[in-house]
Amino acid sequence: MAKILIVDDAPIVLKILRLVLSTEGHEVDAAANGKEALLKLESNVYNIAIFDVNMPDISGIELTKKALSSPNGKNLKVVILSTETSPEMRDKGKDAGAIGWLHKPFENEALINLIQSLL
């Protein structure tokens, strides 16, 4: 199982992600924004991170860049979670280092399958 960091400014999304992932046996840590996520990354090593794109302080794209360049982010696999569907936005995520993209609203099974494919 994996240690996963989930980051979203919507409490209900965090709740759903935590429920689905912990039910699958993963250890889940949550942050409500990018600043909080970077603090967690300073003292924890995660296998996978799921970042919302549109957050008030640091976008998921910028957070991806910062997380992957942090000392504890060297082996981190980042998935972007967003309502954004444009190819340009997906390219920005990929260019930042994200290796997966999940659209909101997501099916629980799609989330589970994506995480399993990254392990």
Automatic annotation (TrEMBL):
Pfam family, one: Response_reg
Gene3D superfamilies per UniProt: 3.40.50.2300
Positions of the Response regulatory domain: 3-119
Keywords: Phosphoprotein
GO biological process terms, semicolon-separated: phosphorelay signal transduction system
PTM sites of type 4-aspartylphosphate: D52
Domain of life the protein comes from: Bacteria
Protein name according to UniProt: Response regulator
Organism for this UniProt entry: Leptospira idonii
